[in-house]
Amino acid sequence: MKSLLITILLAGLFFPAISQNFPSEMSLSADGKMLFTGGKNSDGLYDESLIRTIELNFSQPNYWTLLRQNYQSKTNLLANMLVDGIAYDSVGVRFKGMTSYRMLPASAEKRSFSISLDFVRPDQEVMGYETLNLNNCFQDPSFMREMLYLHLIRNHIPAAKASYVHLKINGQDWGLYPSIQQLNGDFLKEWFLSNDGTRWRADAPAGGGPGGPGGGWGDGTAALNYLGADTNLYKQYYTLYTTSKSNPWDDLVETCDALENTPLAQLDSVLRNYLDIDRTLWFLASEILFTDDDGYVYKGKMDYFLYWEAETNRMVPLEYDGNSCMALNRVNWSPFYHADDANYPLLNRLLAVPAIRQRYLAHMRTLADELLDETTTHQIIDNYAAFIDSMVQSDPKKLESYNAFLSEVQELKTFVTNRRNSILNNPEINQVPPQISNVTYAVDGQTWQAPNASEDPWVSAEVNSASGVANVWLHYIDGLVGNFEKVLMHDDGQNGDSIAGDGIFGAEIPAYPTGSRVRFYVEAEAADAAGTRAYMPVGAEHDVFIYQVMPEFVTNPPVVINELLASNETTAMDEAGEFDDWIELYNLSNETVDLSGWYLTDNEDFYKWEFPAGSSIAANGYLIVWADEDGSQGNFHANFKLSASEGETLRLLNPEGLLVDEISFGPQTTDVAFARIPNGTGPFVVKTPTFGQNNENTTAIDPSEESEDRVSFFPNPADHMLTIMYGGKQRKASFEIINSIGQTIWSGEIEGEIELNVSTWTAGLYFVRYKEGVRKLLIK
What we know:
18% helix, alpha+beta, seven-stranded antiparallel β-sheet, single chain
């Protein structure tokens, strides 16, 4: 499992941090060497450790009849909702599902529900989500098939989050429901760099299904089958949900054309420009491993989504609706289920290409080893069962008995055991793959040292195989998405691989520009008849090694970061009259420096904030940049803030991506600066701020004495009595309190502390002025 792998990697050497501005389902290992997609525990609305209570209240006494009448038209019925006691008014509710609705007895009340929080209020959401799907567990007395399936496959493919809820309707107990995340734009942003692409759902025409008017499953219509060049031929089989393009159907047609009509010998090289082949193989392997009969591999025409990714111009199939997977009567499905049927081209065409077939088999082995491990997965099933046992037992609306629940839990565990044996005993699966270990990269002989823009890292890997090693490849790419480049690795002692013939293979990754995030993985092919493959990391291409290209330093930089204030309450106001964080630059030279195209950043997104065109700093002059995330207030307002509580690293880069200056700082004190002494050239010290001035105009502050020169007042905000405490070295000091229009409301000297009655003061913002500066005060 990924969590185990992350723990193992903690033993690695230091690796420079990489910016964390990833989709939420992406994460770095603790040492920063690996990037994972998927496998994260859900929190918030879909926290699996909680059973949230949802209460729906309809004003109409005949709401049930109205819901039934609205089913076909998918019309929402107005209701109010409580989630764990928090009210959400004017939500839309309707019945959902197909077989889970139509095949229920008329008297059954445990229907599946779709709840739209934005039905009336466009911005209404619950914990970041606008749509809730409550599923009735039709033909699943365990209440956990879909929960378990999604929980497991999210390690390796985009799949919905899920958790349990307790539903009540108009005060009546409706029992336990799995709550399944909607596959909408929010879902896409969690797994992809954006949701700017195009999303379809494969749908059977009205009345479709086995023998229905729309034709049976696998009829060659909506499984990415090529139907011709006319885009209208596809519109009855796919529902377009969202797009930012004027001609999105062309992308679907081109993908289908490339998939079905490219000669097999060229399919791998051609199709990769239209389809994310690796992600597709993980998708197919997941559906087949868990015998999902509500998706592509069984139906071949519905119950799956397609997403055309805008950043790569490639199609990705998305898993949907796994409530009827993991059935014992399907436990012996072949790993090549429907691969001999031309109406299922993702299986039929892809698995006919030997290299793609071996990649698929490697992924299937990984899934079986990780997700059908009896010790781990049986425990997950037992944990789910214990978690919901009492609620299932007391559920007044459940479709099957409590004894059926107990029996089904055992059936799921039996499925895990039997399915693992069935898959791993397949003659193509049970081939012994090569063993890949000790993958690393080096720069100038230093392993895991982040390169700069002029350096070419050498990647090495140890590969062993009982049948011999035919080939080892290094796959690499600059960026978080896209097609990997592929280069052959050698064991000749001349490619960063130690000595010839020692089983260590090496290859070079070319230099990339500063800030590039380079992903890579290793593929090995055994010298057996099948060409059995293995990958490291085993989750490639979504789990990969990663590094970021670091900037080179400028020699004799003309401009430096001279001072910063990470918590500003009194020192200086910006153009909008706000006390925001600020950064001071100083020009060391005797000439004006053009800052056009320079960058400031507070993380390893080295090009985070760019100085506006025409920016400059005068000879021996100062320039202030406000770190307030508010560019609307002026040209020199950066798109980040400084962290006073934890500290961080601040960098200045020139247009060539070279590092002009860099400073790391720890936790900061309010209105105390971090500045260079001597001015412009010395080390950073804690001192009184000198906004836009020579830092030597004041002396550094001894941190051990800092508290002796401070003022505190409380409570803040105050509404009755205000206490001001002065802890200065002088016996007493003068203070005045000024309102927002500049009127002095109180003035006097304080020795130790004083208590003021502010109950009659007008509510608003005030300023406490004293010898060291100004502090904000709120009266409520």
